[in-house]
Design brief:
The structure is a single chain. The chain has helices at residues 5-30, 39-61, 74-102, 109-152. The chain is mostly helical. The chain has one domain (5-152). It is elongated and about 60 Å long.
C-alpha cells in the first residue's frame, strides 16, 4: 500500500513535535542575553529552520511507520525514528556550516563541519537520537492502537 500525503504530513508533524524538545532546549542555551542580533533572525535560524527540516525528514523517512506493510515491528519503527534524527542532525550541520562558509565567518568548510559534528554529537546529538528513536517507536504504538480499534469495531 502506498503512503498517502495525509500519512506523510502526520509523520512530519509527529516528528516535528518530538523535535521541539531539543530545538527549544538548544535555542534557550544559545540565546544571547542581551540579543546581539535581530530576534527574528534567531527564531528563523535556530527554531523555524530546524523544525522545518525535522518535519521534512519525518515525512520522508518516518512515514513508513504508519504503513503496516512496511513496518511490522516496534524495533523497525524505532530504527526509522533513529534514521529521521540522524539525517536531520547531519543535514542541519551541513546547512549551518554552508551558511557560515558563505558569510565568511569561518572560511574552512570541512574543519567547521567536523567541529560542528563532533561538538554537536556530544552536546545535543545523543539527545536528538534518543528522542527520535522513542518518537518512532511511539508512533508505531499509536498505529497499532489505531489498527486494533479499527478491527474491533
Amino acid at each position: 500500500m502506498a503512503l498517502t500525503l495525509k500519512q506523510r504530513a502526520f509523520a512530519g508533524v509527529w516528528f516535528m513535535a518530538a523535535g521541539l524538545v531539543p530545538v527549544l532546549g538548544i535555542s534557550t542555551l544559545l540565546r544571547p542575553i542581551p540579543p546581539t542580533f535581530d530576534s527574528l533572525d534567531f527564531v528563523l535560524w535556530f527554531i523555524a529552520l530546524p523544525l522545518l527540516v525535522i518535519a521534512i525528514n519525518g515525512a520522508l523517512f518516518g512515514a513508513g511507520i504508519l504503513d503496516p506493510g512496511i513496518v511490522k515491528r516496534g524495533w523497525q519503527a524505532a530504527l526509522r525514528g533513529l534514521t529521521v534524527s540522524v539525517v536531520t542532525f547531519l543535514s542541519l550541520s551541513v546547512i549551518f556550516c554552508v551558511w557560515d562558509a558563505y558569510t565568511n565567518e569561518y572560511t574552512n568548510f570541512i574543519a567547521t563541519l567536523i567541529l560542528v559534528l563532533v561538538v554537536g554529537a556530544m552536546s545535543i546529538g545523543w539527545w536528538a537520537v534518543v528522542l527520535g528513536t522513542f518518537a518512532g517507536w511511539l508512533l508505531y504504538q499509536w498505529q497499532v492502537l489505531k489498527q486494533s480499534r479499527r478491527s474491533s469495531s
